[in-house]
Amino acid sequence: MKSINPTNGEVVAEYPEHDDGEVDRRLEAAHRAFRQWRQTSFSERAEAMSRAGEILEKRKEELARLMAIEMGKPVAAGRAEAEKCAWVCRYYSDEAEAMLADQPVGTERSKSYIHHEPLGVVLAVMPWNFPFWQVFRFIAPALMAGNAGVLKHASNVSGCALQIDEILDEAGFPSGLFSTLLIGSERVGRVLEDPRIVAATLTGSEPAGRAVAAKAGSLLKKTVLELGGSDPYLILADADLEKAASICAQSRTINNGQSCIAAKRFIVVDDVLEPFTAAFTKEMAAYELGDPLEEETRLGPLARRDLRDELHQQVTRTVEAGAIPLLGAEVPEGPGAFYPASVLAGVKEGMAAYSEELFGPVAAVIAVESEDEAVRVANDTSFGLGAAVFSSDVERAEHLAATRLEAGCCFVNALVASDPRLPFGGVKASGYGRELSVLGIKEFVNQKTVVVA
Hints:
seven-stranded mixed beta sheet; Aldehyde Dehydrogenase, Chain A, domain 1
């Protein structure tokens, strides 16, 4: 298993894949640790989780550098990711006990309530784009609820995966309670079949989610899936265009454009199409490609060359179908997996950029005649993760976000972002279940009814 620096194509490190014996040993260690961990108090769990947050803060510089080297994230963004991981650790260390307190229910019995118990060892299948955050937003609630876990991380960020193991060990979690399985995707099914695995969570592509869901379903094991997105950002006629353009460019280029909740489709009413497109293209042009190890860099390479080539094929097919490239849209010369900030205008139904997820800094501008058409186009997708509405009429925009857009997360005059205090997840092909908030911690617990006559 190789980690390849996407800036220059050089091999960073190679990791031997775990054989079946090592996988079995780690599953057994997690199962044994769970049986003890489930008996611990919330205060004991919180102490370890709080320490994990402190370690993440202390080591954020080296973790940011590792992310830059393994998957191309600019160091400033990597530092922010480590800080966000520390935040989610603190949040659940503070809130988990109250979230999972017994819930009294009024009945004719002398006592009736809902009691929350951990399930066991949960398999986490995670992607490379946020190699620490995607994992810690699962770790923090799952371990605070009393569960154990094993991680199958993306093979190109094995170094990040092993750092997570080290952080949890240093924080004082029991040995084996959570550990990494260095295995390929083709072995995930066999791990799911193991009776010591009780459930699974996956963040990744739609095909990967379908495969894990099908396998887990055949085994009657619960899953939570956070899959792809083609988030629409609606620019209405009364929007603050300069503000909207700035926020939209920021959202489209977050993590070098490789985020499931990055804005992908910019749906603009005709009345403001020309001025918004001009302002937006200017904002996108300010995101210049650079070395992710440099502090000032805001746009680094994509994680792998094959992903860059796939993105460019989508752009090429869209342009060949009639879209107009206003910015970028060409593969730069030189080493690495770089792709420039790009804007495609005149995107219409039937084009690749209209219906497919573009996992890179490429924006699709779609013109519509009215607000109603904007909503129709926004919902005209198999995905349903995030969406945003820009308008000076906040009440009307909120109504659209709350009642008409088919997505799990809807924002008004702001970019879509995850927050430990709010539930995160999607509908349709973007998956099911929720992470974060009180909903996230209750995904992997037995909500047991207890009645006393």
